[in-house]
Design a protein that fits this description.
By secondary structure, the protein is mainly α. It has 13 helices and six strands. The protein starts with 16 loop residues before the first helix and ends with a helix.
């Protein structure tokens, strides 16, 4: 296969002929891999392949904002996965795309310190690896059971398919596919099988009138300390399991930051403030180029030297307030 020219993606002057011709060639290749709505993933610096747009919109986005850095293997836009060999996954024998994901999130702990030391493995990784090797149905060697399930749940989220309709779809697929297939029968079972890959959340009971959270010092209380409302829904006979009146789902920040650093794709964006910031004086593209950020880095050089010290959203604002 002919080498695909990607040098245009790093050209700063997006008005030049090289950038425009490269963009047109890229879109011509990507247009052969549109979804059912005629859209492709947008690789501009804002969408970063997370949004699907029409070809004309993608052309405008990339031309106005630039092509995302770090996306060197155009697997979402038609480039064969074996056209560029990623050193980090060169030892992967299977073609299933879930294996690199597992190697990112559950790295092997086989780093031996001596000749006599026995390597250890990650049990969580081993369980999921068995799922990857499981066929969707006997004779299906082109997609694994886990990969199929991940794609199916992704479509559910994208299409906002209600749980009851999704369960009916699972039943239909299980009936239509060859017998002895590994398609789950219920939505609960599907989520359970992918639970180790996902990011969970914490359930925290809340006062019916939002006065307080039953958390930390209030975790054991039966009634709201502010208004006195009962924490629980009272049943007619007063028996059975206690059901909270209202529940908040809290998504902890720390495991999500860890997950962003674990993936070789998103990790590049997480340290962009350290590796990809503008070298042009007087150009403000990110808070890292601002005086407040530079002042904070000057006062705390040890913190500034570590590219993993990501500062996003409210974290960035806190540091700016501290610096000023």
């Amino acid at each position: 296969m002919a080498t695909i020219d990607k040098s245009w993606t790093k050209i700063r002057n997006r008005g030049c002929h090289e950038f425009w011709n490269g963009l047109q060639a890229f879109l011509a290749m990507a247009s052969e891999h549109k979804d059912c709505d005629g859209r492709i993933r947008c690789p501009c610096v804002r969408c970063i392949n997370s949004r699907f747009e029409k070809i004309d919109r993608v052309r405008a986005h990339v031309f106005d904002r630039g092509f995302m850095q770090g996306y060197d293997k155009w697997i979402y836009h038609g480039e064969p996965e074996d056209a560029v060999v990623d050193v980090a996954v060169a030892d992967v024998e299977s073609e299933d795309e879930m294996i690199p994901i597992l190697k990112d999130f559950f790295p092997s702990t086989t780093e031996a310190q001596g000749e006599d030391e026995q390597p250890t493995t990650n049990p969580q990784f081993d369980d999921l690896f068995e799922e990857i090797e499981a066929e969707l149905y006997p004779g299906c060697d082109w997609i694994s059971s886990l990969n199929f399930l991940a794609k199916l749940l992704h479509l559910k989220v994208r299409g906002k398919i209600p749980n009851n309709i999704f369960e009916e779809l699972l039943k239909l697929l299980k009936f239509a596919f060859p017998k002895e297939n590994n398609i789950p029968s219920t939505y609960y079972e599907a989520k359970k099988r992918l639970k180790k890959l996902g990011l969970g959340y914490d359930n925290i009971d809340v006062c019916l009138y939002n006065c307080c959270l039953f958390y930390k010092e209030n975790a054991s209380k039966e009634a709201c300390p502010v208004c006195g409302t009962s924490r629980w829904v009272t049943s007619e006979n007063g028996k059975g399991k206690k059901v909270p009146c209202k529940v908040m789902r809290y998504f902890p920040l720390t495991p999500r930051l860890k997950r962003l650093y674990s993936s070789r794709i998103t990790a590049k964006s997480m340290i962009w403030h350290h590796t990809g910031k503008s070298k042009d004086d007087g150009v403000l593209r990110h808070p890292v180029d601002g005086l407040a950020w530079k002042d904070f880095d000057a006062k705390h050089p040890d913190f500034a030297r570590d590219p993993r010290n990501v500062r996003l959203g409210l974290i960035s604002m806190d540091l700016i307030h501290l610096a000023t």
